[in-house]
Structure formats: structure tokens, C-alpha cells
């Protein structure tokens, strides 16, 4: 079953993206490089609660 997660910017702490992931296949937290419209550049985004 896929669950909804929120990705937040590591620099400005804004929550920018909503996505889904499979908890059984990937139990660890997601980290990916995405565009932050508040910082106006590509930054690392981490999964939040």
C-alpha cells in the first residue's frame, strides 16, 4: 500500500512537494534534489512526518 508523504526543503524548511511511496519496499526516509520556489534553486528535500 502506498502512503502519502511530504517533502520539505533542507535550507528554508518549507514543505513544497506531496508524493507517495511504498513503505514496505522503502522503509527509510526519502532524500532527493528538487527545485524550491522559495529559495529559487535546486536543494535537497527530505521526507517529513
Task: Characterize the structure shown.
- The radius of gyration is 11 Å and the shape is elongated.
- Helices cover 0% and strands 61% of the residues.
- The chain has one domain (2-48): Ribosomal protein L33 (Rubrerythrin, domain 2, Single Sheet), CATH 2.20.28.120.
- Strand 3 (31-36) and strand 4 (41-48) form a beta hairpin.
- With 49 residues, the protein is mainly beta.
List the helices and strands and how they pair.
Elements: E1 2-9, E2 15-22, E3 31-36, E4 41-48
Antiparallel strand pairs: 1-2, 1-4, 3-4
CATH superfamily: Ribosomal protein L33
Strand tally: 4
Q: How would you state the average pLDDT, rounded?
A: 95
CATH class: Mainly Beta
State the secondary-structure class: mainly beta
Question: Going across the major beta sheet, what is the strand order?
Answer: 2-1-4-3
Shape: elongated
Number of helices: 0
Distance between the termini: 17 Å
Largest sheet: 4 strands, antiparallel
Estimated share of beta-strand residues: over 45%
CATH architecture tag: Single Sheet
The SSE order reads: EEEE
The share of residues in helices is under 10%
User: Unreliable runs, pLDDT <50, ≥5 residues?
Assistant: none
Structural domain count: 1
Which fold name is given in CATH as the topology? Rubrerythrin, domain 2
Rg result: 11 Å
List keywords for this structure.
49 residues; mainly beta; Rubrerythrin, domain 2; four-stranded antiparallel beta sheet; elongated
Amino acid at each position: 500500500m502506498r502512503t502519502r508523504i511530504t517533502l520539505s526543503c533542507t535550507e528554508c524548511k518549507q514543505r513544497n512537494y506531496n508524493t507517495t511511496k511504498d513503505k514496505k519496499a522503502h522503509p527509510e526516509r526519502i532524500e532527493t534534489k528538487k527545485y524550491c520556489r522559495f529559495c529559487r534553486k535546486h536543494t535537497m528535500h527530505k521526507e517529513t512526518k
